[in-house]
Amino acid sequence: MGGIGFLLEYKTKLAGSLLLKVDPAYTSQTCYACKYVAKENRESQAVFHCVNCGHEDNADHNAALNILDRAFQPQPSTGRGTARRGSGTLVSPEGTSRGRAVSTKRETTH
Ligand SMILES: [Zn+2]
Q1: Same domain, 55 and 106
Q2: What is the CA(89)–ligand 1 centre distance, in A?
Q3: C-alpha 24 to ligand 1 mean position (Å)
Q4: Which range marks the domain in which residue 98 is found?
Q5: Same domain flag for 71 and 100
Q6: Are residues 39 and 69 in contact, defined by beta-carbon separation less than 8 angstroms?
Q7: Structure pTM?
């Protein structure tokens, strides 16, 4: 009864309505370590074993890593954004209009 779809939507909302459409194709055949794609990489239903670099992992785990990897690939390293999350992002409503100068100052202080 739409279980998985519901869960997906629910989790997506939890993640801050960040819906990244990731094509799951080949994620289960792609080596997370070297990105080599081959169906031979799937040693069995449960075991992933890369025929290129020898990387071994739980097949589901490897696939999940690939999906994560794809989801976040379109965003090249923006540097400061990731490291500074949580500090300085909360701006009081009254400070939003003139708070820009403050926030840029904050970013330059390392
Ligand atoms: Zn590999």
Answers
A1: no
A2: 39
A3: 18
A4: 78-110
A5: no
A6: no
A7: 0.50
